[in-house]
Design a protein that fits this description.
Shape: globular
Strand content: 15-25%
Number of helices: 10
Strand order of the largest sheet: 1-2-3-4-5-6-7
Largest sheet: 7 strands, mixed
Distance between the termini: 47 Å
Structural class: alpha/beta
Low-confidence stretches: none
Number of strands: 13
Bound molecules: zinc ion
Helix content: 25-40%
């Protein structure tokens, strides 16, 4: 199964990233102007199309595709999907646009983080023609028809160009990576603090701002619908602050990335109550430690 109804008009589309269920989702808002929020990796675009087929949405029906930010698990498939969606317009933050039009630098910086072989598994993003992208800045509103509208909100911290999306009638919020990762079946939260532009102050401020809008539920890319909104916000802030402090301590002692990752993996494992963390969770921890170390190198 690729599509699951999670909220009024909203379907979660499991992209089966690298063949794994429950790790990277996209969301479809069904209505007069079907809208896709996030796209998954380039290599898993076929899962998105299968999810759409399951809920009876033709690719040519899709009117908006919103990659919340340019990271490959969110925007990687956008260019490829757009070729199947002749009536769709990309809506993205203005800082994302250059990377969507020409992903060369994005591919270079992602290859530094993940290595060439993993990049091969993720797939490389296709360039998107500039005339198919509508850029937004701080805030924007999207009319989805029949009185349905979506607010796009700038949510920097995880990435400076990230946007989140709120359905105004139900207050369901597509968080993007403004909140931490909770994989199904693993009770611990993992902060999402990746390179190259993680900024803890901005991330905490962003959560302060979006919490004031009182979302009714959080539609999280990694992974699923959360109704324990306050817990997700509180725990994200708590762990981001804690991880930055801890990694700072390790980094000051000169500990390299691999060793610091081991320390943080130990904490996640304790929190999760199992030493047996799945490989995708281990990768998430490593990338988050890497992002914190890069932040420290730039700022301390
Ligand atoms: Zn992500």
């Amino acid at each position: 199964m690729f599509a699951t109804k999670v909220s009024e008009r909203v379907y979660m589309l499991d992209t089966y990233a690298l063949g794994q269920p429950g790790t990277v989702s996209a969301y479809l808002v069904k209505g007069p102007k079907p809208t896709l929020v996030d796209c998954g990796y380039a290599s898993s675009y076929g899962s998105v199309l299968r999810g759409l087929a399951e809920v009876g949405t033709m690719p040519s029906d899709v009117r908006y595709v919103i990659p919340t930010h340019v990271h490959l698990d969110h925007a990687g498939a956008a260019g490829r999907l757009l070729k199947e969606m002749p009536n769709a317009q990309i809506v993205a933050h203005e800082k994302s646009v250059p990377h969507l039009v020409d992903p060369t630098r994005l591919i270079e910086s992602s290859t530094k983080v993940f290595g060439a072989s993993i990049m091969g598994l993720y797939g490389l993003p296709d360039p998107i023609p500039a005339d198919r992208i509508t850029a937004v800045t701080e805030e924007a509103n999207l009319d989805l028809g029949e009185g349905l509208s979506a607010a796009l909100v700038h949510t920097p911290g995880h990435a400076p160009h990230q946007i989140s999306v709120v359905l105004e009638r139900t207050k369901a919020m597509f968080t993007a990576d403004a909140v931490g990762i909770v994989y199904p079946g693993m009770k611990s939260l993992i902060p999402t603090t990746p390179p190259p532009s993680f900024n803890p102050g901005q991330l905490v401020a962003t959560i302060g701002r979006i919490r004031q809008t009182k979302p009714s539920e959080l539609l999280v890319p990694h992974f699923g619908a959360r109704r324990d909104v306050e817990w997700v916000f509180d725990r994200t802030i708590e762990l981001v602050v804690k991880w930055v402090e801890e990694v700072k301590g390790l980094w000051k002692k000169g500990m390299p990335l691999d060793a610091a990752t081991e320390v943080m993996l130990g904490e996640v494992a304790r929190d999760a109550g199992t030493a047996d963390l799945p490989i995708y969770a281990q990768v998430s921890v490593r990338v988050s430690v890497m992002g914190i170390m890069q932040y420290l190198q730039k700022n301390f």
